[in-house]
Amino acid sequence: MIDFAALAVPGVQALRPYEPGKPVETLERELGIRDAVKLASNENPLGPSPRALESLRDVLGNLHLYPDGNGFALKQALAERHGVATPQIILGNGSNEILELMARTWLAPGRNAVFSQHAFAVYPLVVQAVSAEGRAAPALAATADQPFGHDLAAMAARVDADTRVVFVANPNNPTGTWLEAGALEAFVAQLPEETLVVVDEAYAEYVEAPGYPDATQWVERYPNLIVTRTFSKIHGLAGLRLGYSVSSTPVAELLNRVRQPFNVNSLAQVAGLAALADTEHVQKSVRVNREGLRQVGEGLDARGLDYIPSVGNFITFDVRRPPGAVYDALLREGVIVRPVANYGLPTHLRVTIGRAAENARFLLALDRVLAA
Ligand SMILES: *Cc1c(COP(=O)(O)O)cnc(C)c1O
User: Fold this and answer.
1) Distance (Å) from CA 144 to ligand 1 centroid
2) CA atoms lying within 13 Å on the CB side of residue 109
3) What are the domain boundaries of the chain?
4) What is the mean pLDDT for each group of 10 consecutive residues in the chain (372 residues)?
5) Which of 5, 124, 129, 216 is the most buried (most CB within 10 A)?
6) How confident is the model at residue 58, as a pLDDT?
7) In sequence order, what DSSP letters do the residues of 225-238 get, joined into one string?
């Protein structure tokens, strides 16, 4: 039998696939239960933007046609939204695709990418898949202002002449920590101009902390800056796979060479355009999340459980033991959360903020599980 693994490119030989949150249907099938609730993938508990759903009806009859490979209408709306020119926008099959395009465009064996410990798991994966070196900088301490958050000085210290990409998540998943405008811009400004810096703003619309920056406003100043956003979180369109980046035009043009010609399907393009205009759904989502963050935070406080203060739509909390048994027991209660041991947080679990009833159900299930 041929050892195909030995024939794969070096990075792929040691690659471990991304582990997504468990789908509700899978859990219900496995345990023979009903009414499970998934609080595992930071999806919007309010569902898709109603205006996005409405817009889809018009496209269904055209599904025999290829999508607009240039995503003209959506790119134009996004450019307007961020005050940039249309060629500065790249659409992706989720923002994860943009992260992958970054790796495929700039990285190769002998080159490296820098990111933080406890940062989004996709960064090391896309780097390793192209057999480049991933450098994880130690994160801030558990006792820091931003516990387990990005240590920008430690990240800068890992950058050398072969560093082509730096990944910064603001806020970061799974910690929910964030970087303030002055500190983040100073970090971007001090990087070599030859080093691309990705600021991943997947949760930007949720953040209400004063001093939280919109890095898309910096791309004119820093041609090596690329900011990613997604429709998967606040817009509630994770199933359609749609994300985008804002960068200088030369950087966007390179990513455009590497992407598949029809990487973003026509449903996603139409729904994205409608969701972008649905400020009511966005505002409601922010409000429900704000209330839910408070509800879950107070619930964890009341149970004496430590958690990382989060500005996203999720909270990572410490169960002070290997969390496998807690995770499994929550599953049996019909509540799906997310283990984060693969993020270097071996005693934590991450819970997505749901609607009030879902949050209450999670806290109640947690009581039963921890009492057992
Ligand atoms: C959820 C998430 C994304 C979004 O991924 P999509 O591919 O757009 O669904 C990107 N970055 C971070 C940090 C995330 O948590």
Assistant:
1) 25
2) 5
3) 22-47+280-371, 50-277
4) 92 88 91 92 97 94 96 98 98 98 98 98 97 98 97 98 98 98 98 98 98 98 98 98 98 98 98 98 98 98 97 97 95 96 94 98 96 86
5) 216
6) 85
7) EEEEEESSSTT--G
CA 123 – ligand 1 centroid, Å: 11
Kindly report, residue by residue over 100-157, the tens digit of the pLDDT: 999 999 999 999 999 999 999 999 999 999 999 999 999 999 999 999 999 999 999 9
Per-residue model confidence (pLDDT) at position 18: 86
Tens digits of residue pLDDT in 48-63:
999 999 999 989 999 9
> Which protein residues touch ligand 1 with a CB less than 6 Å away?
42, 94-96, 120, 169, 173, 200, 202, 230, 232-233, 238, 243
Cβ atoms 335, 37 nearer than 8 A: yes
Q: What pTM does this model have?
A: 0.97
- Reduce the DSSP state of residue 168 to 3 states and report it: strand
For the CA of 233, the closest atom of ligand 1 is: 1
Q: Which residues contact 127 (CB under 8 A, 6 or more apart)?
A: 11, 103, 107, 112, 113, 133, 134, 165
| Tokens representing residue 181 in the block | 């405008």
The CATH fold of domain 50-277: Aspartate Aminotransferase; domain 2 (3.40.640)
Ligand 1 pocket, mutate which of 96, 150, 167, 203 (most atoms under 8 A from CB): 96
pLDDT tens readout for residues 23-33:
999 999 998 88
Q: What is the whole-number distance in angstroms between the Cα of residue 237 and the centre of ligand 1?
A: 12
- Whether the bond between 171 and the residue before it is cis, its omega within 30 degrees of 0, is yes
The pLDDT mean for the chain works out to 96
What CATH number does domain 22-47+280-371 carry, 3.90.1150.10, 3.40.50.150, 3.30.470.20, 3.30.1360.40? 3.90.1150.10
Number of neighbouring beta carbons within 10 Å of residue 67: 20
